[in-house]
Amino acid sequence: MLSAPWGGSEVLWQQTALSALAQGHAVFASVYQSDHFPAQLRVLEQAGAELQVRPFYSPALAVRLKRRLQIALRLAKPFSAALEAFQPDIICVSQGGNFDIIQTAWLREALLQSGVPFCLVCHNYDANHLPSTEMRRLGREIFGQSARVFFVSSEQARVSQRQLAINLSNAELVKNPVNLPEAKLLPWPSDEVPQLAIVAGIDIDRKGQDIALEVLSQPQWLQRSWHLNIFGDGHDRDYLEELITLYRLQKRVTLHGNVADVKGIWLRNHLLLMPSRREAAPLVVIEAMLCGRPVVATAVGTIPEWITSNQTGFIALAATVPLFSDALEQAWLARNNWETIGRDAHSWAFQYADLGAATTFLAELRKIAAEGTVNNR
Questions:
Q1: Averaged over 286-309, what is the pLDDT?
Q2: What is this structure's pTM?
Q3: Residue 120 — left, alpha, or beta (φ > 0 → left; ψ -120 to 50 → alpha)?
Q4: What's the confidence (pLDDT) of residue 377?
Q5: Which of 23, 42, 181, 298 has the greatest number of C-beta atoms within 10 Å?
Q6: Regarding the domain delimited by 195-352, which CATH topology (the fold level of the hierarchy) does it fall under?
C-alpha cells in the first residue's frame, strides 16, 4: 500500500508468500519502510523470506539525492539490481489500489525490462475516478503485458477496464484469505442491548465512520437502546473523537483500537456496520458473515454480490446519510430476526469463502511461472 504500512490488501500476498516458503520455494519481498514495521513482515523474514525495505518515494530533491548517493556508495541496492540478483521465476505486484502501478514509473520499467512473467493484484478502487489520458496509456501498456491481472471482485474488474478503456483478456478473479481458524457459526451474543460494530481502519474518507455516527445521532436512534463498538485505528482517530463529541455520543460509542481476535469481536457483537465510500472485497464482511452476523453495508465493491437485502444483511445503495439511515432502519425493524439472518449469512459465506485462499493463489502463480512467457498483448 502507498498510504499505510499494513492493511487488508496485504494479507493475500503475505499469506501466499508464507505458503510458498512452506513448500520450499524461495521468496523475495520488496516492501516500503515505515516507522511501525509490521509484525507480519517480521514473520515472513523469520520464515526465510529475503526482504528489501525501500523508502517511500518523495519528490523532494534532497531525499532523491540522498537515495542516489546511497546507491552510488552501495549502501542501498536499487530494486532492479536486487531483482536481477534473486532471479525470480515470477513477479507478483500487490497493489493497495488498482492503479498504483501506473503511478510508479521505476517499478513499471523494472517489470517490463526484467523478461520475467509478472502479474498484478488489484485491491481497492474508486469507481468515480477517471484516469488522465497519460495514465490510461500507461495502464493499458502495463496491464496488457501482465501475464495475469487479478481482481478481487467482478465489479472492480468491470470498472477498471472501463476506466482504462481496455478489454483485459488476462483478467481473473482472486479471493482474499479470512482471518479465522475455521468457518464456524458462533453462538449469538447474550447482551440484551444490541451491540453494533464497525471494524475498519479509521480512514474516514474511505470507510465512512462519519456517516454511521451522523445516522446514529438522529432523534429516533437516541431514543433506542444500542451501543456502537468501533474497532481499528488510523490517521483520522482525532477527527472521529471530535465527531463523537459533536454528536454527544460519548456514552453510546466505544473506541477499541486494533483488535486481532476476529472471533472475539463477533462473540460480543450482533451487527456489522460498513458505511464505506470505497471498498473492493472487504474481509471484515465475509468474516462477520462466516461468524453468523448480519451486515449493514453500502453497495460498494463485492457487497451487492455478497449480500441480499433482508436475507443475509441490508444494503444502502450509496454512502450517504439518508440511504445508510434507511438501510439501518430496515435492519432495526428486523432486529428480532438478526440471528436467523446471521445464520443465512453464514451458510452463504461458507459456500463462497476459500479458507485456503493463499494456497489457491500460490497454485495460480506456479501455473504462470510454468508457462514462463511474458505477455505481449
A1: 95
A2: 0.86
A3: beta
A4: 41
A5: 298
A6: Rossmann fold (3.40.50)
